[in-house]
């Protein structure tokens, strides 16, 4: 029996990066037909549409958005889609979890979006720490002066699942936090 994580990872792959893997097409806003996705999942994993709905509903990060009979990933895409997110005023401070080995490059050139549409930022240290922990190596949490960035004209977007997104964070707005001191 496949577990929820396997199915959720497959959905992230298809809805963010490679819809062709499932013979699906995303529209310009990232939506695809939910019934068709469920058919593909039934063929691959042998689970019903009700199970898919449950997985979407129980996803702790709320990665997927369902609207009538359409579904899309709330953020994290590498394929070009327009999520039609409106700029919103960020909290004064945001956080980004990363790895010690990326730090020198990040402090030099800032945070850049890499393969995704945006740089992903978290509103609290605990979430940023979890993002950092996805990869092997020593964790680093960076503090972003979002207030100063916003005052300087940088735009921020809040995804449907509460992730703060921006195009890039120049190094002058970044500092490494001492997690024990901030805890
Ligand atoms: C790093 C997960 C060198 C950056 C999470 C990160 C998140 C640089 C990596 C979402 C750099 C990119 C996104 C620079 C940035 N030089 N390294 N100039 N600028 N980096 O996966 O933020 O579980 O694209 O620090 O919860 O780790 O998939 O971004 O380490 O919200 O739903 O380059 O993915 O969500 O990695 O994670 P990613 P991320 P899901």
Word description of this protein:
- The protein is α+β, with helices and mostly antiparallel strands and 183 residues long.
- The protein folds into two domains: 4-73, Orthogonal Bundle (Arc Repressor Mutant, subunit A); 93-182, ADP-ribosylation fold (Alpha-Beta Barrel).
- 36% of the residues lie in helices and 20% in strands.
- The protein is built from seven helices and nine strands; from the N terminus they run αβααβββαβαβαβββα.
- The chain has helices at 4-17, 34-45, 49-58, 100-109, 125-133, 146-151, 179-182; strands at residues 32-33, 64-67, 70-73, 93-99, 119-121, 139-145, 156-158, 164-166, 174-176.
- The protein has a three-stranded antiparallel β-sheet with strand order 1-3-2. A three-stranded antiparallel β-sheet has the order 4-6-9.
- The structure holds ligand HQG.
- Residues 12, 61, 63, 76, 98-99, 102, 105-106, 109, 111-112, 114-116, 120, 131, 163 line the site of ligand HQG.
Number of helices: 7
Small molecules in complex: ligand HQG
Overall number of structural domains = 2
CATH class of the largest domain: Alpha Beta
In the CATH hierarchy, the third-tier topology of the largest domain is known as ADP-ribosylation fold
What's the helix-strand series? Answer: HEHHEEEHEHEHEEEH
Rg: 18 Å
Strand order of the largest sheet: 1-3-2
